[in-house]
Design goal:
binds adenosine-5'-diphosphate; two-stranded antiparallel ribbon; about 15% strand; Helicase, Ruva Protein, domain 3; 5-stranded parallel beta sheet; single chain; binds magnesium ion; 11 strands; Arc Repressor Mutant, subunit A; 3 domains; Rossmann fold; alpha/beta; about 375 residues
């Protein structure tokens, strides 16, 4: 068993106590919440942990809907329907479908692991009926229900006017509160903060930040101890510094470290582990880099070396890294932000993927 799991595991979950309390307060007060942060900081895991706690407390029912792979409202209805079926009707799926989709042609197949997969024959005009029945079903549960729509920014890309439609349904519900979750980018910003958009001012917002350094350090220490292993403070310090305490990257490195170390892990070995890890990713990262046009390649290397850059078009930055004119640098920047290779944080621009950044620092 490796305590640094890359799937959510309630037994090895670190902190997020304040954030989870905040979400619980909103739920109690009937407020919907938008949860956002850069990728891989732990939004999904945190919502799953909240749901794990709510299940134990038995006052609320929870439905987690991952919209990542959805492209239109039919996909949305299908994924949402599957999540409800899995929650409430695993014993008798056929009865479940009949209850959930009255008058809509729906059939079911099962994937290899037994997950139900819906096949919906939604004709013209039936889509709204289908969606509205799902919301009605939850509205009529005896217990209050919390629904999480993870990767909610996908909805903005649907060809239908999905936001306005969903907003209308959501507004009517009294028994259901919602958590919308997604990576902070302009799509999500626009959905929730633009006065013209349907979701404007209808939700509380909760920004997920990095886990506190000392709390994370203590968590790592305890995970090692639980399995009769030890790790020095300076080794932990090295890992957290290397990964900038960005949750996913820290977990990947600690997973390796836990697996590779014997009884006591010291800083020297920790440094070797991070170095070797970047080495193993080298070929992939070189491929990614070589696929970029020249201007983008030079810019991302320069930003990696600098760490964080407030104004990439500033003359001294351009001169220092021998970059082309400020207009072509800005154009390259725009594309890299769009591709989510560069992240625009409040402090400046940086390489989104921490390991990629370490790779660039090391080899260029
Ligand atoms: N509080 C936490 N404790 C332990 N592991 C976590 C925690 N938060 C996130 N993780 C791990 O970090 C990785 C990224 O988290 P995830 O929830 O998928 O991020 P996001 O949804 O923000 O992109 C996952 O592998 C998850 O298991
Ligand atoms: Mg997620």
């Amino acid at each position: 068993m490796n305590p640094f799991t890359l799937n959510y595991n309630p037994d090895y979950f670190c902190d997020r106590e304040n954030e989870i309390q905040h979400l619980k307060d909103n739920i109690i007060n009937g407020l919907n919440t938008l949860v956002h942060s850069p990728r891989r900081l732990g939004k999904s895991a945190m919502i799953l942990h909240l749901f794990h706690q709510l299940k134990k407390e038995k006052k609320y029912e929870t439905v987690f809907v991952d919209l990542f792979a959805t492209q239109n409202l039919v996909d949305f209805t299908k994924i949402f329907g599957e999540a409800i079926l899995q929650k409430y009707h695993t014993r008798n799926i056929i009865t479940g479908i009949k209850k959930l989709f009255r008058g809509v042609h729906a059939s079911i197949t099962f994937s290899d692991d037994g997950t139900p997969m819906l096949d919906l024959g939604l004709g013209e005009g039936q889509l709204q009926t289908g969606i509205s029945q799902l919301f009605d079903y939850l509205e009529q549960r005896k217990n209050p229900v919390v629904v999480a729509f993870d990767e909610f920014q996908e909805v903005a890309g649907y060809p239908e006017k999905a936001e306005a439609l969903l907003r209308t349904f959501i507004q009517r519900l009294k028994n259901v509160t919602f958590i919308f979750s997604g990576s902070s980018n302009h799509i999500l910003q626009n959905m929730f903060y633009s006065a013209k958009q349907p979701f404007y001012q209808s939700t509380e917002s909760l920004v997920i930040d990095k886990i506190n350094h000392d709390i994370y350090a203590e968590f790592i220490n305890q995970c090692f101890n639980k399995f009769d292993k030890e790790i020095s403070n300076s080794a932990i310090g090295h890992f957290l510094e290397f990964t900038e305490t960005h949750t996913y990257y820290t977990h990947v490195i600690c997973n390796q470290a836990f697996y590779k170390s014997n009884n006591f892990l010291e800083k020297d070995e920790a440094t070797e582990i991070t170095g070797n890890y970047i080495e193993t990713r080298k070929v992939d990262y070189l491929n990614i880099l070589n696929l970029l046009p020249g201007n983008q390649r030079s810019l991302i290397k320069s930003i990696a070396k600098e760490g964080i850059v407030q104004k990439p078009s500033a003359v001294n930055f351009l001169i220092k890294y021998k970059l082309p004119s400020s207009s072509s640098t800005l154009q390259a920047l725009h594309v890299l932000v769009e591709k989510e290779m560069i992240y625009r944080s409040p402090d400046g621009y940086k390489v989104y993927d921490v390991f990629f950044r370490r790779f660039l620092e090391r080899y260029f």
